[in-house]
Amino acid sequence: MATDAVGLLEEQAKEIEARIQPAKEAIAQDEQTLARIRAAIDVLQGNVAIAPGASTSDAFRQATARRRSSSGGPTASEIDTGAIVTFVEANQPVGAGEIGKAVGASGNALSVKLKNMVEDGILSKQGERRATRYSLKVG
Questions:
Q1: Which pLDDT score, from 0 to 100, does residue 39 have?
Q2: CB 80 within 8 A of CB 103
């Protein structure tokens, strides 16, 4: 009797798997499309730094890969500018790593955010590479 029950359950499981397989494929395709759309938005908003000599398709691939990563970190536009200003004001001059820990961001998104804040005149940048420190822009 137990083998009959197992057989019946296995048959039901196969039927359910057959019904949901097309939905799984459609969801996977929608996820890929969504990742491409979000990556395009990141590129258009300047949230992905484009290396000198790189094409926009390189930036798009970079943004897509970042979106697909499991890091789950925020994009540059999602990082709270106010939180950065508050932290930098209390700790200036301060490095990007310390800022990132304070606001829960890292990597390219944080670099782009800090670069944008310098360009917007919110922060000033001193030093290069690992020695870079940020302060609030004075006047």
A1: 73
A2: yes
Say which residues have a Cβ less than 8 Å from residue 66's Cβ, sequence separation at least 6: 39, 42, 48, 108, 109
Phi-psi region of 103 (alpha: psi -120 to 50; beta: other; left: phi over 0): alpha
Provide the b/e sequence for 26-35 (b: ≥16 CB within 10 Å). Answer: eeeeeeeeeb
Residue 1 scores a pLDDT above 80? no
CA 22/CA 20 separation, integer angstroms = 6
pLDDT class for 114, splitting at 50, 70, 90?
A: very high
pLDDT at 73 over 90: no
Domain boundaries, the chain: 2-68, 76-136
Fold of 76-136: Arc Repressor Mutant, subunit A (1.10.10)
Whether the Cβ atoms of residue 65 and residue 58 lie closer than 8 Å to each other: no
Please tell me the distance from the alpha carbon of residue 114 to that of residue 22, in angstroms, as a whole number: 44
